[in-house]
Amino acid sequence: MKSGPLGESVSPILAAENVTVHFPLGRRGETLKAVDGVSFTVVRGEIFGLIGESGSGKSTLGRALVCIQRLSGGILRHEELEPFRLPRLALRRHRRRFQMVFQDPHAALNPRQTIGASLREPLDIAGEGTPATRAARVASLLDAVELPASLLRSHPHELSGGQKQRVNIARALALAPALLVCDEIVSALDPSVQAGILNLLVDLQRQFDLSLIFISHDLGVVSHISDRIAVMYLGRLMELGPAEALMAAPLHPYTAALLAAEPGLATAGGPRRRALAGEMPSPVAPPSGCRFRTRCSKADARCAAEPPPWRELAPDHFAACHYAKPPQPLATTMEG
Amino acid sequence: MTPPLLSVAGLGVRLGPVALTRDVTFDIASGERVGLIGESGCGKSITGLALLGLLPPGARREGRALFDGRDLPACDEAAWRRIRGRDIAMVFQEPMTALDPVFTVGEQIAETLRTHRRLSRRVARAQAVEMLDKVGIPAPMQRFSAYPHELSGGMRQRALMAIALCCAPRLLIADEPTTALDVTVQAQILDLLFDLAERDGTALLLISHDLGVVADLCTRILTMYAGEIVEDAPTEALLRRPRHPYSAGLMRAMPRLAPRKSRLAAIPGRVPQPGAMPEGCRFAPRCDFRTTACALPPPLAPARGHKARCVRQGEIVLGGVV
């Protein structure tokens, strides 16, 4: 069964096995369980979307995946390797191939450095090539993110938000990474600028055969760009599946609620949907059993007693819900 | 025909020699829900502030704004104090900075009531609790004594709405009220805004950069670009067939409407800066449809119905999204 572009016959570039990241809170021995047992793999050349609301742990997970954040448990693999088992210096070298781009394009750049110097810094630190080849590399990076060479001597304040985010992407690409984690990188940008960055990411992925993990709270953005989507809630994955299938027929009630909460152009000023009630509970004391049960209309005693197992309900389409059913041939799977 | 609740004509905001907005003209009827969309720096927030007399020091308002047939004062602070919070109220984007951290949310609601209605402390308190309940805050009696930091983002935004709505204003201006919130909480707040506006007949001016949010709630949408209103249309007409290339561009840039991984239509170039506006049509330098006719400033035309500030609106056919 398992073959094709997303099957196991393709070696994963990244694999998370039961990854947890806990932060001790000091007082009363409490623990904030930001990421609490997450498993998935990312295939080479894939754009993997990770969606969740604030407090879901998606950013902490993203940081852990590029080894900026230590794990509290579980195993992280980059290709055949376990990066957290590497000695310090080897880990530092290894990190070049697993890079991250952050949300705030202004904060990520040194205001006193020119764009050229910013792009050159990672190359200098890594000691790649000769000064002349580094200069050439800087020029080609700027070209790759579709910025004019005239910006090399500019400072960040002279650039627009979209241009700055392009510089940040170029910077992350400087050391030819295999995988890029993009954490809300278009959230701070205006819609027309956001569109340009999304186009660029799709192009870069193809051009450099990159693997991307694209983290966002915006369903529209994630579904546009991703091959597969993982839905995170309170430190755990609720659903994981091919983007089209997940958007067309979500298996988990939380995914369905997220889709229903999208402000609609179809309903234009018209009848109301009923929004999901309540807010996400604290990750310090998550609910027993299913984490989503406190806001789920289908929850019963079983959901409080047993954590739902992670089940494959359709090819490559997983969900953690006691009551999720395999999708029917007709689109009649989500009732009520 | 009844006169509109708010009638704005030729409104502009100047900061020294620089015009931030100009010729902003629109009406809002009683109970109507109108959206104002545009990207950062287009002047949508400053327009909202001008309608509340909250312009920053040094900024000056031009043009006329009639509220319920009466002129909104240009700069008379005492007159504004009687209007603000009672006739026209505002909800801001960032609920943490809009609330005072050293007073409980209940005290902040009661303060507004006591200022405008001269109620006793006891009555104001009772009404504040009622208001907290009305905006969907659970356990309102206990929440009256909660400080802003003790509430979640969604609850703070509800508290802010309780303050804005406690004197039953006839016009509520909401500036990006859901931008800082998660989608599920955003949906709750949009539902609440809709219910409150419907039930009390409050008119709404919803300012946002998100066409989805505005289309969800409003029956009419104003599109703003580089300090000017460039399109004024019923929501459905705008989504079906926009008449200004900028509105059409905003729609085509929306990823949720495009086929997966397809190229999105980013609008080339940058928004012009105040003080360095192109002569003629301000969108022309970024517009695919520009001709020599665009060298003159186009009017917002026709006078009624679906208006656009584009001389070619009769000739070009732009694609909508529904």
TrEMBL record, chain B:
Q: What residue stretches are annotated with the ABC transporter domain?
A: 6-251
Q: A single GO BP annotation from the record? A: transmembrane transport
Name the family.
Answer: Belongs to the ABC transporter superfamily.
Q: Does the keyword Membrane apply?
A: yes
Carries keyword Ribosomal protein?
no
Q: Which InterPro entries match?
A: AAA+_ATPase (IPR003593), ABC_Ni/Peptide_Import (IPR050388), ABC_transporter-like_ATP-bd (IPR003439), ABC_transporter-like_CS (IPR017871), Oligopep_ABC_C (IPR013563), P-loop_NTPase (IPR027417)
Protein localization: Cell inner membrane
NCBIfam families linked: oligo_HPY
The UniProt keyword set, sorted, is: ATP-binding, Cell membrane, Membrane, Nucleotide-binding, Transport
Q: Name one GO molecular function term.
A: ATP hydrolysis activity
Which protein, by its recorded name, is this? ABC transporter ATP-binding protein
Q: Which GO terms describe its cellular component?
A: plasma membrane
Report the principal subcellular site. membrane
Q: Which SUPFAM superfamilies match?
A: P-loop containing nucleoside triphosphate hydrolases
- Please report the record's description of how this protein sits within the membrane: Peripheral membrane protein
Q: Which PROSITE patterns match?
A: ABC_TRANSPORTER_1, ABC_TRANSPORTER_2
